[in-house]
Amino acid sequence: MQTAHASALSGLADPPARMVDGAAMDYLLIEAVNVLRVSSAVASARARKIERDMLEAGLVPPPPPAKQNPRDSASSTTGKISRPADEDEGVRSRLEAIGMHVGGNFTERLCRDRPLFSDSLDVIKFVCKDLWVSCWDKQVDNLRTNHRGVYVLQDNAFKPIARISSWEGRQEALKRAKLYVALPAGIIRGALSRIGFQGTVVPEITTLPQCTFQIKLLKST
Amino acid sequence: MMATTSKQYKAIGEDLWKSRTDKINSELFALTYGALVVQLIQDYEDYAEVNKQLEKMGYNIGTRLIEDFLARSSLGRCSDFREVGEVVAKVGFKSFLNITPTVTHSGAPPPSSRPTSAAKQSGVPGSTFILTLDENPLAEFVELPDEALEGGLWFSNVLCGVLRGSLEMVQMQVQVEFLSDVLRGDESTEIRVTLLKYLEEEVPVGDD
């Protein structure tokens, strides 16, 4: 097929990258959060049902009774009511997983023609420069490290959250931003993982549009 | 005034694309969308439901995206459904996704040579156009497993929702569906848009 040949050739020829409008990505991410909120609730409900079915069939032992503080009247609710925090956790972890897929695959292509990384600092610099520029059009503004596997990357105008405005006000915008950055955190984590470094990436936003990412690399053997 | 020609719409689309200041690598976009579809498959375990969720997501996107589109393109109202197809293919898809699907019209009455009145659009319900996508930025790197093919997944179903949502906001109720997809091993990737009816524009309270 014409198209297949064309894309095979373009992979070899290394032309300017194909682009789409940034707005398309923005709209996708906004609605992805909504769709994932619903789907994660469906998945949790299904998992809980399976647990209940197994419990009823006697396949698993019943959970130990929860210790009740007689003075604590708030503890009487069962787990049936899904709390907002749980819902968000489902969305957050899915966004991170999506990010990891994106970061891993994208990094593989970015790293195709470059020599092997010499050490973890080299890898972090790659993240701060090459990865950041390819994904978010600029480099990281500030990098700090304790030289023992912890790195803090700071972006003063982080693109994915730079345009978050909310008609509901600054608090809502901040809350929304804190959820959205799970995906970029995943991208970073996925990139590191594909290069061979396991670790955690924790995003933090105090004031929009500034964002920091704390990276803790596990000791590689 | 003569109707805008197909070639003129193509030029408008290209100008709009060139003027967009914030562009991203389409691989990032494709990887993100692909991972999202996989997550939905894991969560729902039901391809028909995933198709539905993708369409719904697209609908929500479409209702926002149309405002952006109208603002950036400053195009007036389309005089008939045929023109809608031209604008969608050459200006809409071009300015957001940088692709220009081919558009094939059918069932629409021949375009009138005199300008139609601004108040009422013309087009027979049942009019359709088919968009044929030679490239699909959502589907880079995607190969569907047999299970998904047999399960009836329409990987890019979000596009149907986007079209439905955006056209609804400009007073057209349409039905949008994939007819074929190269991801499924078909010859081509085609989306059919069918006009169901025009929606009455809501007059704000207080207007005479």
What does this protein structure show overall?
Chain A is of the alpha+beta class. Helix content of chain A is 54%, strand content 12%. Chain A has a 4-stranded antiparallel sheet with strand order 2-3-5-4, covered by helices on one side. In chain B, strand 4 and strand 5 (189-198) form a beta hairpin. Chain B is built from 6 helices and 5 strands; from the N terminus they run αβαααββααββ. Classes of the chains: A alpha+beta (221), B alpha+beta (208). The A-B interface holds A 1-3, 7, 17-25, 27-32, 34-36, 38-40, 42-43, 46, 94, 97-98, 101-102, 105-106, 109, 134-135, 183 and B 17, 20, 22-29, 31-36, 38-40, 42-45, 53, 56-57, 60-61, 64-65, 68, 95-98, 134-135, 137, 140-141, 158, 182.
The largest contact between protein chains, plus residue counts on each side, is: A-B, 39 and 42 residues
Stretches of chain B where pLDDT falls below 50 for ≥5 residues?
Answer: 113-121
What share of the residues of chain B lie within helices?
A: 40-55%
Instruction: Please describe the biggest sheet of chain B, giving its number of strands, its sense, and whether it closes into a barrel.
Output: 4 strands, antiparallel
Count of helical stretches of chain B: 6
Q: Quote the beta fraction of chain A.
A: 5-15%
User: Low-confidence runs of chain A (pLDDT<50, min 5 residues)?
Assistant: 1-10, 72-80
H/E series of chain A = HEHHHEEHHHEE
> Got a strand count of chain B?
5
The average pLDDT of chain B is: 88
Spell out the helices and strands of chain B N to C.
HEHHHEEHHEE
Question: How much is the average pLDDT of chain A?
Answer: 84
Biggest sheet, spatial arrangement of strands of chain A: 2-3-5-4
What amount of the residues of chain B lies in strands? 15-25%
| Category by helix and strand content of chain A | alpha+beta
Tally of alpha and pi helices of chain A: 7
